[in-house]
Structures are given as structure tokens and as C-alpha cells.
Write a structure and sequence with these properties.
The chain is α/β, with parallel strands linked by helices and 492 residues long. The protein has 17 helices and 18 strands. Helix 8 packs parallel to helix 9. It is globular, with a radius of gyration of 24 Å.
Length: 492
């Protein structure tokens, strides 16, 4: 598609709007009206009655055009011009495709955080009106936003200026799922380096614990993620988790999570190692309870194995279990997703996270036909709406929400939980509430000065072999943690 921008410099913003409808489209940006056969024109120009925002769209020999006069009374006319152009282009796409994404023109990853900011600065009535009439957010998503904000606020209030969370990265999986865009390595390819990786991770944890102690930081939550942490042996899990327990002050910890992940990696020995190290919350992630979909996405387990792993965790005393699901998986249907939701409810986990499929790799996942992305988005929207309705009917309520780029249907990821079982770390990392000290390959330490809103990121090496080879350099970067606290915090 040829994107033609005239009279403005909103190239990035207009391209993002197009990708709400056509995420796989190759887009060429130009600034002349040589349109071609497939194009979107976004134009700002002056007339007697003010600045005009005009959008024209041509797809498959169908054309649409919408325009509006930009209100001169609005103080931030630059931002309003961008929003108005996006709205007019949105209307064009809606007319030609018959599809209206529920989040309207809103493309940010933290809609609940933005909604809360508007509420705090201008009041809830302003926030509701802006989301509804400026961003074109649907009533359903607006209500979801309100509920997520309520859940997030109660969790955020638990954090203080000296609070922090700890993240541990285990970037290994049994196999790589076809939809995955995370840094992870199959166990077959990485088997030989895992012992050395575990040794160095424990060293990094000890050094990080010394820094946290010296700075007088208060540990709120611990999260071991991946990858799939339970690709480690029971002995390796015990080594890493006991290193955390023995080196950090755990007296203030509100939540200790291990993302057990794939059911085919879970056994009694690994769960025992997790349990004996004081872990309070685990996640068992089936993604779907339909065996044909599991096979299609490269999962080497069945729905029955998910049930078996869950029941084993219950037998060992785990009373706070999360399960992850994905809406919009290739080969899944609305009826298939309904089956997944209903099967999960039978297990009665304390929390459930519903993700919309990230389409970063979806072009390889059997997308075909005219506007196949739009068809996928419509189907996935039905899935997430069904899960929300059913979960809320069963007292499993939304408590946090975020979005990723290029998700099917521009949809959201939502955490649902029974009261008192909300995942605290999930909120802290997405809200950027406080400092996250992160250890392991691909981990990113995020330093936060709550009063000034200053944020600094320190990146570990991305891949395990880089982490191993560059370990000493990585450790030297940790001096930046103390430098940050010296700069932004008054310490005795």
C-alpha cells in the first residue's frame, strides 16, 4: 500500500493506524499525490473555516473518503490534528472492510494507565468522553478499562519508594511454539550450556542481592519466567530458587511466582523443589485445551496432560495457580475456544490470563484470503469477549490489562483473578510502579524513581551464549544501579 501524507509529519502514526486493519501490509510512505491502485491519503490543509483533516482510501477497487474540521479551541492542536487524521482514516477502513476494532484508534500498550492518568488529571467524566469520542473506544473496552484500573490501583498502592521486584529469566523451552516471538531456545539445542548458565545466574543473583541490601531496598515480589523455567531439572530449580531465598531478604515478599509453563515439563520432583523454596504462586499454561490446535502450534503435550499437571500441583499443596490462554491461535475456532474456557473453569484455577495472539509471526500461520487478518481479528474478538463474560459470571474478575504490538484484532491481554489472588508482579511490571532488578539472559533491569518518574534500563545480553561469554561485562553494568539511586534518592 502507498501511504501518502501531505501537510503533516505523522508518518509513523498513520502507518500504525493502517496496521490495525492490515498488519502484514507492506507500506511505502510518500508525500506526493501519485496514488497508484492501492493507497491511503492523509492530508492536512487550510480553508476559510479552519484546518481540514482528510483521508482517502482505496482497496480492491473500492474507495472511501472522510474529512473533518479541526477545532481551533483545542490547546494541543498538533496532537488533535494527528488524532483527527487517524479518526478519518479509521472511518475509511471501517466503511470498506465492515470491521471496527473495539479499541478504535488507540494503539498504546498501556490503555489502563493512560485512562488512569486522564482520570487523575481531568476527572473520570473527561477520561470516559476522551476515550469514547476521541479514541473511538467501544463501550465494552471502556468498561474493561475501568475495571482494570480499579484492580491495578489497589495493587500499586502497596508499593513504596524503596520497593522493588526481582525477575529471573530462564530462556529455555522443550520446543519452540510457532507463534513465539520471545527469546527462548529449545532444550535439545541448549542442553550443554544450561549447567553453566545456572551457575552464572546464581552468581548474578548473589551480586544483585548485595546491591539491593546496600541500597536498603524492600523486595515486594519475585518472578521466575522464561522461556519455560521447568525445563530445568529439579536440582537446577532448587539451586536457583534457594539462591534467591538465601541471599535476598524475603521477609517483605508478598508474592513468589514460578512460571511452570508447559505441562509436559512438570513432574512431582520439580514441583517439590518449587514448593520447598517458598514459592507461593505458579502458572501452568495450556494456551488451548484442543489437541489439534496444540499440535498445529508445535506443542508436544495434550489437554489431558494439562489436567494431570494441574491436579498434581493441587495434590502438592499449591493453592494459587494461574493458567494462560491464547485467543486467535491458528486453526482454533470460536467453539474451540469456548471449549477451552469451559474446561479451564472445571479446574478452578485462582487466576486466568487471556492473551490475544501476537501477529508478529502470524504471516507464517496459515493466513490466507482477502482481508484474512480482519477475519482473524473478528473471530478473536468474539473469543476474548466470551471469556470475559464467563469469567466475571464465575467471580473471576479483570485486575490488569496491557497490549502488544500487532496483536490479532488490536486486542488486549487481560489478567483475571478471584479476589485476593491477583498477580502483583504483573501489575508492577506493566505499570512501571517500581524498580525491577532482573537477572539472566535477555533480562532488563528497570530502575524507577517514583517521585520524579525517571526510568533507566540496564540490558543484559540477549542470548544465553552471549550471557555466558559476556558475564563479567554484564556484572560491571550493575554499578549503574547504585549511580541511579545516588542521583535520584536521598540516602544517608
Amino acid at each position: 500500500m502507498n501511504l501518502i501524507n501531505i501537510g503533516h509529519e505523522f508518518d509513523y502514526e498513520m502507518e500504525k493506524l493502517i496496521r490495525l486493519f492490515l498488519p502484514f501490509e507492506k507500506i511505502t510512505v510518500s508525500h506526493s499525490e501519485n496514488c497508484g491502485n492501492r493507497y491511503a491519503v492523509c492530508k492536512l490543509y487550510q480553508e476559510k473555516n479552519g484546518t481540514i483533516a482528510l483521508a482517502k482510501l482505496k482497496l480492491e477497487n473500492k474507495e472511501a473518503q472522510f474529512s473533518a474540521v479541526i477545532d481551533k479551541t483545542i490547546s494541543n492542536t498538533q496532537k488533535e490534528s494527528q488524532h483527527e487524521l487517524a479518526r478519518q482514516l479509521f472511518y475509511c477502513f471501517e466503511k470498506l472492510t465492515g470491521y471496527r476494532p473495539d479499541w478504535g484508534i488507540l494503539t498504546g500498550v498501556r490503555p489502563a494507565k493512560l485512562f488512569l492518568r486522564y482520570c487523575n488529571e481531568y476527572g473520570i467524566d473527561y477520561a470516559v468522553d476522551f476515550f469514547k469520542n476521541k479514541f473511538l473506544v467501544s463501550e465494552s473496552k471502556l468498561e474493561l478499562c475501568k475495571k482494570a484500573v480499579k484492580g491495578e490501583e489497589s495493587i500499586i498502592s502497596l508499593s513504596g519508594d524503596n520497593s522493588f521486584s526481582l525477575y529471573l529469566s530462564i530462556p529455555f523451552c522443550p520446543t519452540r511454539c510457532s507463534y513465539c516471538s520471545f527469546v527462548s531456545h529449545s532444550i535439545e539445542k541448549a542442553q550443554d550450556i544450561i549447567p553453566q548458565y545456572v551457575e552464572l545466574l546464581c552468581r548474578e543473583l548473589k551480586i544483585t542481592a548485595e546491591i539491593a541490601k546496600k541500597l536498603g531496598l524492600r523486595l515486594e515480589t519475585v518472578y521466575m519466567g522464561g522461556g519455560t523455567p521447568t525445563t530445568l531439572t529439579a536440582g537446577q530449580l532448587n539451586k536457583v530458587l534457594s539462591t534467591v531465598r538465601q541471599n535476598f531478604d524475603m521477609s517483605s515478599v508478598r508474592e513468589f511466582t514460578v512460571e511452570a509453563g508447559r505441562p509436559d515439563t512438570i513432574d512431582v520432583e520439580k514441583l517439590g523443589a518449587i514448593k520447598q523454596n517458598g514459592v507461593t504462586r505458579i502458572s501452568i499454561n495450556p494456551q488451548t485445551m484442543n489437541d489439534d490446535v496444540l499440535e498445529r502450534i508445535g506443542r508436544k503435550h495434550t489437554a489431558q496432560q494439562t489436567i494431570k499437571a494441574f491436579m498434581l500441583a493441587r495434590e502438592l499443596g499449591f493453592d494459587n495457580i494461574n493458567m494462560d490462554l491464547i485467543a486467535g491461535l491458528p486453526g482454533d475456532t470460536f467453539d474451540g475456544f469456548k471449549n477451552t474456557v469451559n474446561e479451564i473453569l472445571k479446574l478452578a484455577p485462582e487466576s486466568i490470563t487471556v492473551h490475544a495472539l501476537s501477529m508478529k509471526r502470524a504471516s507464517t500461520l496459515n493466513t490466507s484470503g482477502q482481508h484474512s487478518e480482519i477475519k482473524m481479528g473478528s473471530e478473536a474478538a468474539k473469543m476474548v469477549n466470551y471469556s470475559r463474560d464467563v469469567f466475571e459470571q464465575n467471580g473471576i474478575l479483570p485486575y490488569y490489562m496491557y497490549r502488544q504490538s500487532k496483536t490479532v484484532g488490536n486486542l488486549e491481554n487481560v489478567g483475571y483473578a478471584k479476589q485476593g489472588f491477583e498477580g502483583l508482579y504483573n501489575v508492577y511490571i506493566m505499570d512501571e510502579t517500581h524498580t525491577i532488578l532482573a537477572c539472566g539472559a535477555s533480562a532488563v533491569t528497570k530502575l524507577k524513581d517514583s517521585s520524579q518518574k525517571n526510568i533507566k534500563r540496564i540490558f543484559n545480553y540477549k542470548y544465553p551464549y552471549e550471557y555466558i561469554n559476556g558475564f563479567e561485562e554484564l556484572i560491571s553494568r550493575k554499578t549503574e544501579i547504585g549511580d541511579f539511586y545516588d542521583k535520584y534518592f536521598k540516602r544517608d
